[in-house]
Amino acid sequence: MSPAGAPVGGLLVLVDPVARRLDGESVRIARDVLSAGAAAKICLPQSPEEFARALARRGHRRPVIVGDDRALVRAVGLLHRERELDGEALSVVPVGQAGSLGLARLLGVPLSAVSAARAALDGVVGVRDLLVDDSDGVVLGGLRIPPVRPPAPRAGGASVRSAYRSLVRTLAGPPAAPAAGHRLRVEADGVVLADVDRPVDDVAVAPGGGGLAEVAVRAEGAVVRARAAAVTVAGADFRYRADAAVSGPVRRRTWTVRPAAWGLILPR
Prior knowledge:
Blueprint: E1 2-3, E2 11-15, H1 17-22, H2 24-37, E3 40-43, H3 48-56, E4 62-67, H4 69-81, E5 89-94, H5 102-107, H6 113-122, E6 124-133, E7 138-139, E8 143-145, H7 160-172, E9 184-188, E10 191-194, E11 202-207, E12 213-219, E13 222-228, E14 230-242, E15 245-266
Parallel strand pairs: 2-3, 2-4, 4-5, 5-15
Antiparallel strand pairs: 1-6, 6-7, 6-15, 8-11, 8-14, 9-10, 9-14, 11-12, 12-13, 14-15
Protein name: Diacylglycerol kinase
GO molecular function, one term: kinase activity
InterPro entries: ATP-NAD_kinase_N, NAD/diacylglycerol_kinase_sf
């Protein structure tokens, strides 16, 4: 890691609208700390389009994202697609519901607004690998293809409230029925780790450092592990969770590691 140094053009503080709505006090604290420590332009975009325009017009200002994991992934994805991620160091002040800050925690960002804002001012740059898929999507922390959960039986005449409670139980509690495996072909740098002739229970891919991804495939109780620069999954329609979002269904997806592709400012 290397010191971030004073931002030449100051800071561009992008406050996600969800963060403002959920925790205005933490947003206020972050703004106060950042404004006291550097020349800071505060942007309050109302939509993803305004967020993208503000980031594109940042000039020499260093971006600071105030928001949850989705806001951070959105910023990195935008800079990647504009081919402006190389050499750009970002900061994030995590603000959001507890369940929406897991990526920030994984990356080593303090969850305290004060601590994260101070790190944005005088922290060090940690250079990180990035996973990029064949649709130009980005993965910062990791992705997973979980087992398929069979749909719960629908009760006739169920109310919206009871249906919602059933959904919450399905997502948060133990499954009511055994999960089914996927019929997938998983390749790591061309080496087949699993094929469609047997069900795959779980696939996990994450940046592993050194320009390679860590790959784990679980099938029939056994786990196959590998390190690879590119991972391809193909087969029947499948969904996957990458960082903060669920994507799919798709029938084929390749993720490629971009070594040292982006920088995140962390506490010293």
